[in-house]
Amino acid sequence: MPDAWAASTRARHPGQREAFLGYCEMEGVREDMRLPASEMLLCGYVAYLSGSMSGKAVRDKVNGVKAWHLLLNATWKGGEMLELALRGAQNNTPASSRQKKRPPITLEMLCMLVAKLRRDAMDAAIFYAACTAFYGQLRLGELLPASVKIERFDNSRNPCGRDIEVLNHHGSYALHLPYTKVAKGVGEEAVLTAQDGLICPVRALLQHLKLNAIGKDTPLASYIRGDGVRVALTSNVLLRRCNEVWAAEGLPRYTGHSFRIGGTTHLLLCGINPDVVRAAGRWSSSSFLRYWRAVPMLATLHIERRCGKLRRQDVRARKKLRKLARPQA
């Protein structure tokens, strides 16, 4: 059963359990009343935490207590009352705990990047990863391994050369992601389509494959150093290189998720149907809306296009009616 949770989530469970037991100790709750915990006790714990941290952090702590119950086959008594308490904690999130929206990477920033990168193997890998994360709407962890050491690479977690496949005669490629946040080990497919101009994920991919001699079993996110040793490209290396370039242009520091939301925003601004963008980015509907950037511009663009189409249809219909209404000679 522990494998039902991601490793990073499991690592938080012991601390979450101890925090709950510490609250019980402080409140004088008898040991036999702590497991299983009554819904009233759980609501009291939420009320104690509420206002001191974000609602998401409170829910995370309660989920850790729930996991403790499930692992010990104890009845979980959280219900509607607990859910209402958690909603209240969300509403009581202090201003200091509210995260600012992460700014998106833009096409202009990728142009800055390509202008400053060297024409060597490492920067070819950097540019491939940046373009792929942007146009593929990827989370960096789905594309890049955690360690630079090739011997630690796990092809069940990150793609290798065999996971790239030509999709059609237009030159588009499918990238198989062996492990994703939502599908887990089932994996999902990302699509890379050829673009006009300097910033093209397909061209960046092909250049990277050639310069870094990527074979079928070679980690896709890897490059050959100057000393001839192959190393994996990690998110830390990618972000450090990108932020070096952008900082020199006076831009703030960007995080890995900025590629995903930047790619999504760019495709929407290009007028791509939002349903197509959501499907291609493997977004859930709620997350998709939460991570939209430049919403007023996007809404205006799509409404104007839709209304413009309707206006054109109306003009054609009126012309047809006038033609039919003319008296026949």
Automatic annotation (TrEMBL):
Which Gene Ontology BP annotations are present? DNA integration; DNA recombination
Q: Does the keyword ATP-binding apply?
A: no
Q: Which InterPro entries match?
A: DNA_brk_join_enz, Integrase-like_cat_sf, Phage_Integrase-like_Recomb
Show the GO MF annotations: DNA binding
Q: Does the keyword Chloroplast apply?
A: no
Against SUPFAM superfamilies, the record matches this protein to: DNA breaking-rejoining enzymes
Q: Which UniProt keywords apply?
A: DNA recombination
Look up the domain of life of the source. Answer: Eukaryota
Entry protein name: DNA breaking-rejoining enzyme
Q: Which organism is it from?
A: Schizophyllum amplum
